[in-house]
Specification:
homodimer; 361 residues; Rossmann fold; Dehydroquinate synthase-like, alpha domain; seven-stranded mixed β-sheet; 14 helices
C-alpha cells in the first residue's frame, strides 16, 4: 500500500492505494465518527463490490443505507442527487452520517456533491473503482452534476476525509475504460513531470498487463502530481489548477460534437492533448515539443491520437463555450515541452479555426 | 454608516449598515470583478428596490440579468434554485459573474446556495431588506433550500463578499415582520451580551418607531455578536455556533405544528425563547434567570411570549427530529442567566414532555 496526503489545511486528507483495500474494515475505521453510513454506488458496481464494502463497514458496528443509482453519465443529474438526499432524509440521517462513494467518476461527483450539500455538509469517503477516478476525479474535491445546459455546471469544491483506491478493482475494467484512465496519467506527466513521462514509457507492457505493483506506483505518482497542484490552487482561482485541463478544451469539444458516450472521456482527452501539443508546436512557438514521443506513448497505451473528422467550425464553437473562459476569450492550456505547460488567453479565434481546419481534416 | 468585518481568513467579508446604501454604486463597486451581475429578488421586493440597485450597478458599466422569484418560504425550493442556474447558463454567465441577493432570508438563502453551486461557486453580495435577514441570516454564510422532507436540509456554508444593509428598507416592513426581526436581536443579547439586553430595554420606543440611527447602532451590535460567534465556529462543528439556536428547537416545533406561515419565524422564536428560559429556570438549575424581564422586553417589542395551546407530545415529536440532534438525542440550547447560554444534550424526553404539558397547557 502507498499513502499520500493532500495538504489543504483543515481540509487535508489521505489517499490510500493498493491491492485489497476495499474489503478491509481498517480502511474505513479512522474516518467514520457517527453511527450511520450511506453507501452510494451504481447498478454495475453494486454486484461486484458492494458486499465487501458493506461487510467491512458492518464489522465496525455501523448501520448502512444503500443507495444504488443507474449507471452512466446521463444519470449525473439532479434526479440522482435528490435520490441520495431523499433516502438519507427518509432514514433520518444526521450531520455525522458518512457518505461512501463506491464507483467511478460519476458516482464520486454526484455522491460528493450530495455530501457537500446534505445538511450543509457531511463526512465523505471516496472509494474509486476506475483508473480515471483513482488518478483524477477523486483527487482535488471537485464535485458536480450536469445541467441540461452544460456538463458539471452545478457543483461544489468539497474534500473527502479519505480516498481508498483498491487496484484490484481495475482488473475488471473494460479495455477502453482502462485505457481512458491512462490518458489522464499521461496528461499529468506531460504538464508537470518529464521523469514520470519516461517512467510511463518504460512500463508500457506492465501497464497494459495491469500489473498491481506498477499500477500502485504509477497511480501514487500521478495522484501526487495532482495533489501538489490542488494544494497550491484548491479553487482554481490561480492559473495552476487550470493546467490540469491540458487536452480538455479540445477534448470536450470532441466529446460534445460526437455525442457523449461515443468517445470515452480519456480518449477525447488523448486526441485533444495531441491537438494541444500540435498547436503549441506548429503555431505557438513550442519548437521543443517532442510530438512523436507523445503520440507513440498514447498509441502504445491503446489511445487515439487523431481527432474524428468533424467540421472545424463546430469544434471551435464548442470550445468558445468552455467553463474556463472568462469574458468571452477562449482559454487554452498549451505545452512548452514534455513536462511543462502554461495557460494562454491570447489565441485569436481565427488562428484556432485555421489550425483546426488543417488538423482535423 | 457602520461597517464591521466578519473575520474568516480568506473568506472574510464586511457588513455595511446605514441609510440609503442600496442605491449607491460605491456600495457595490469594490466587490464586482466581472462584467456581468445577476440580481436575484422576488415579486414583492422588485417594484420597491430593484430599479435603484439596477441603476447603481449599471452606472458601474456592468450588464445585468434579472431573476425574479415568487415571494414566500414555499418557494425556497429546488425549482427556484434551478430557475437561477438556468437563467445564468442561458445568459452564458461565467465564474466571474456576481450574484446579488436582494430581499429577505428566503432570497438570501436560495441565491446564496445558487452562488455556492453555480460552476462550483461565484462571487456573491447580500442586500438584505428585512430586519431578520440584516441581523441574522445574512451573517455567517448559511445558505439552503427546503426539501419536501425538511426545512433547510439541502445547502452549503458559503460566505458573501459583502453585505449591504440599508436601514431605509425597514420602513416598509409590515409590523409583524419587523417585530419578528427584533426577536433575533433579543435572542443574540440573551445568549451573549447582558449590556446589549439593557440597551434594547432602554431603546424600546425608538426601536418601535424604527428610528434610523438607533437601528443602525442596534443592527451593528447584533451583527457583531453573531460575527464573533461565526468567527469561532464557522461550520457549527463546535458548540459555540449552536448557541445561536436558543429558542429555535422549541420555535421550529411551534412553526411546524401550526403550519408554516401561521406564526412568523421570529414570533415562534420569541415564544420558544421564553420556553427555553422557563425550562432552564424551573427544571434545570437556572435560578438566576430573570424571566419577567425577558417577557417584558419581548412584549414591549410586540412579540408573543406564550406558545399556542397544542399537544405537548406533538411538539416533542417535532423537537426530536431537529437537525441539531445527533444519534437520536435532543439537543437544547438553555440559559444560565441573561447574557449566558449553553448547549445541553442530557435532557430526558420524559422530563421535556412533562414540562411541555405544563407550559403549553
Amino acid at each position: 500500500m502507498q499513502t499520500l496526503t493532500v495538504s489543504l489545511a483543515d481540509r487535508s486528507y489521505s489517499i490510500h492505494i493498493g491491492s485489497g483495500l476495499l474489503a478491509r474494515a481498517e480502511s474505513y475505521a479512522p474516518f467514520i465518527a457517527g453511527k450511520t453510513v450511506a453507501i452510494v454506488t451504481n447498478e454495475t458496481i453494486a454486484p461486484l463490490y458492494l458486499p465487501q464494502v458493506k461487510a467491512a463497514v458492518l464489522s465496525l458496528g455501523k448501520s448502512i443505507i444503500e443507495i444504488i443509482l443507474p449507471d452512466g453519465e446521463e444519470h449525473k443529474t439532479f434526479t440522482s442527487l435528490d435520490k441520495i438526499h431523499t433516502a438519507m432524509l427518509a432514514a433520518a440521517c444526521d450531520r455525522k452520517t458518512t457518505i461512501i462513494a463506491l464507483g467511478g467518476g460519476v458516482i464520486g461527483d454526484v455522491a460528493g456533491f450530495a455530501a457537500a450539500t446534505y445538511q450543509r455538509g457531511v463526512p465523505f469517503i471516496q472509494v474509486p473503482t476506475t483508473l480515471l477516478s483513482q488518478v483524477d476525479s477523486s483527487v482535488g474535491g471537485k464535485t458536480a452534476i450536469n445541467h441540461p445546459l452544460g456538463k458539471n455546471m452545478i457543483g461544489a469544491f468539497y474534500q473527502p476525509l479519505a480516498v481508498i483506491s483498491d487496484t484490484d478493482t481495475l482488473k475488471t475494467l473494460p479495455p477502453r475504460e482502462y485505457a481512458s484512465g491512462l490518458a489522464e496519467v499521461v496528461k499529468h506527466a506531460l504538464i508537470f513531470d518529464v521523469d514520470h513521462f519516461a517512467e510511463l514509457e518504460a512500463n508500457v507492457d506492465a501497464l497494459n498487463a495491469r500489473d498491481a505493483s506498477v499500477l500502485t506506483r504509477v497511480i501514487a505518482h500521478s495522484c501526487k502530481i495532482k495533489a501538489d497542484v490542488v494544494k497550491q490552487d484548491e479553487r482554481e482561482t490561480k492559473d495552476i489548477r487550470a493546467l490540469l485541463n491540458l487536452g480538455h478544451t479540445f477534448g470536450h469539444a470532441i466529446e460534445t460534437e460526437m455525442g457523449y458516450g461515443a468517445w470515452f472521456h480519456g480518449e477525447a482527452v488523448a486526441a485533444g492533448t495531441v491537438l494541444a501539443a500540435q498547436f503549441s508546436r506548429d503555431e505557438w512557438g513550442g519548437a521543443d515539443i517532442d510530438l512523436p514521443s507523445i503520440e507513440r506513448l498514447l498509441t502504445s497505451l491503446n489511445l487515439p491520437t487523431k481527432a474524428p473528422k468533424v467540421a472545424a467550425q463546430k469544434l471551435l464553437a464548442h470550445m468558445q463555450r468552455d467553463k474556463k473562459n472568462e469574458d468571452g476569450v477562449v482559454t487554452l492550456i498549451l505545452l512548452k515541452r514534455i513536462g511543462e505547460a502554461y495557460v494562454d488567453r491570447r489565441v485569436p479565434g481565427a488562428k484556432l479555426l485555421a489550425f483546426l481546419e488543417r488538423a482535423v481534416a
